[in-house]
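G., the chain you wanted modeled:
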Amino acid sequence: MNPTHDTSRREWLTQALGLLSVAAAPSLAFANNAAHIVIVGGGVGGATAAKYLKLFNPQLRVTVIEKNPVYVRPYGSSEVLNQHAKMDDLNVSYDGLKSRYGIEFVFDTVTGLDPQARVISTLGKKKIGYDRLIVSPGIQLMYSAYEGYSEAVANQSVPSGWIPGQQTALLAKQLQGMRQGGTFVLAAPPNPYRCPPGPYERAALMTEWFAKHNPTAKVIIVDPKDSFVTDETMMLGWNRLYNFNLPDDYVQKMSSQVEMTQHSKPSMLSWVRGKDGGRTLKIDAKNMRIETEGETIKADVINVIPPMKAGQVAATLGLADSSGFCPVQRRTFASTLVPNVYVIGDASIADAMPKSGFSANTQAKVVARAIVEELAGKTAPEPLWENTCYALAGKDYGLFVADVFKIQADGKIGRINGKGRYLPLNATPAQIKLGARYQQAWLRTFTADCFA
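Predicted structure as tokens:
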């Protein structure tokens, strides 16, 4: 890592995040202190919004409606597969939000919305009124996008596990029990999808695990795309750790910046891009075969990460358009389809912002500020958002992508940092290892920021 470059990057991020910090400090001239803000969805976005609403104005009444009494975090969930974490480690309690901030929770399923009366209906026959409504519905997986695939198949034999839970535990059991010399195929999703580096981190962590426990195994990524976020730094890690030879176009692009090894011994890991026939067409769960545009592969374990759209509640409440996601006003994330409703997180159409927990967290803070200012009869300041995605190419091989965003001249959200987004290709071994430590520290501090 170039010290001068790294210093300037740190200074730039410090200035940008300082502006974000100022933007997150609300006016003290509160009005309508008795307002009731209801939040549908208790994941990262919903929990963060609830907490920061109370921090900005403790007099507000804030209620979260969430189906599950315990949050199961998706970020870091692939570490269950390589035995670096247990399923219980993914569980996050809502107790801190209740006891420290006085946030109310209703554990129920939302079934409808009356936008004129501003009333939410639930499966448990509750009618909950609101002054402002924030919806953070997450994503749902479109299992039926592939012939032969369904949620039932995913639950029984060909798991996805992209929404952590039963399928994550099943996939861990399958991978850890795979026969010696077996083949693991991971079907990566098309854009847009939650956690851009995630599928490739999952494949890398299992390659590392297999190298120790099943050294003749194969890991094959089939992909409808020809590139992915953090692709250069991730594949450089694969090259160093798993004898992976980068595609020729990547070698040509990267060779002037970093030395790569051309391995004669085949790698356990391979990546079949869209241009090479990597798009998934069909799943044959009975015979454990996956058909792509290029070939049909017989596997021992298949992990399908299907296309995604906004969580079901977004459609139920009339917040999603024909794209499957939710259009919003960029400045406040207010829905363009339903008044007095805001949509944050993976479900929102946020242009250049990725669908990540960090994005949901920063969007939630901006929305909380916007609502507090609106209730006080004021205009929220021009927002800034940030995102950082940490990923692992191996247990001690960390990398990242870090960005800051603002509204551009065309009215859309765009990235305002150009260089310094990624771990430099010439980073030292010590810096790479430190990146892995940052990832583990981030899991803890990020969870605390959202839920504690």
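The two ends are 34 Å apart (CA to CA).

Shout if anything looks off.
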